[in-house]
Specification:
Elements lengths: L2 H30 L4 H22 L8 H25 L5 H7 L3 H13 L5 H18 L2 H4 L4 H24 L6 H23 L11 H28 L2 H4 L2 H17 L5 H18 L5 H10 L6
Helix pairs in contact: 1-4, 1-10, 1-12, 2-3, 2-9, 2-10, 3-8, 3-9, 4-12, 5-8, 6-13, 9-10, 12-13
Length: about 325
Amino acid sequence: MAKSSQTLLIVFAFIAIYIIWGSTYLMNKIAVTELPAYMLASIRFVTAGLLIFGICKLMKIPIRVTKRQFRNSFIAGFLFLTFGNGVFVWGLKYVDSSFAALEVAAMPLIVLILMRVIDGKKIQAMSVVGVVLGVIGIYLLVSQKQITQQEESLLGMVIIFFCVLGWSFGSLFVSKANLPQSYLVNTAYQMVTAGITLFITSLLLGEHWSWPTDWSPRVQLSMSMLIILGSIVAFTAFNYLLKTVSPDKVATSSYVNPVIALLLGWYVLDENITKQSIVAAAILLTGVYFINTKKKLVMFSRFRGKLKGKPIE
């Protein structure tokens, strides 16, 4: 693939995970008001996975994989979708969708720390600045009395944090794992295997299942958008990016998603937006810039040059 074409594809992939995933918090929040969490996630991922397999057949993309690739797809699907998404949707019962999205903004910080601890990767100065801004933004968010004093909000916050931790581990795993070469095939296996485990979980928990014809029109619309946009389009873009750019840069989607979720939650569901939340969102977005930028921190570079005894131009 030509470098210009790949750059354009990367840009579109980032747009997908930034904007589409930002809207899925709202879609999940609408759907979970009527549907059990694990049933919702199971139907979403099995349907999306089967549709992707159908697309692969039409495009004549081979769907056969090795045992190792299947196992790795299963592990990735569990971390991302069974745990990272299925349990997350359950957590949405206790907190606003906009707040949940803002809490997920801790993921770039967690990914950077895991990359340092597990891979020994050096954290760049600009990324450190981005992380510091992220921590400040997260603190401003979770310290709000309007949120922390809500009944069962602490439970929701803990649930979502562990989901973020699972998603962060999954990001590092996928970036190095032997997975199907086709990003569509990879996504399909992750979704179908995760959907099956979510189905089993739903049955074990005794969730009440219903037919789509029994759902309200807005839930039907939300589920359709979750399957087509949130699963097929955005998740395929996500898997592509994990194999193309650094995981910490992919994780910055969780800084942008909150802003989209915040606005949609306010506009559609009448969720409250505090001034502190707006400030937190602005700081988190600034953190994205510092983690993603290729520019060097001038003051830090000069200081490091002096330590090494190099002349400063």
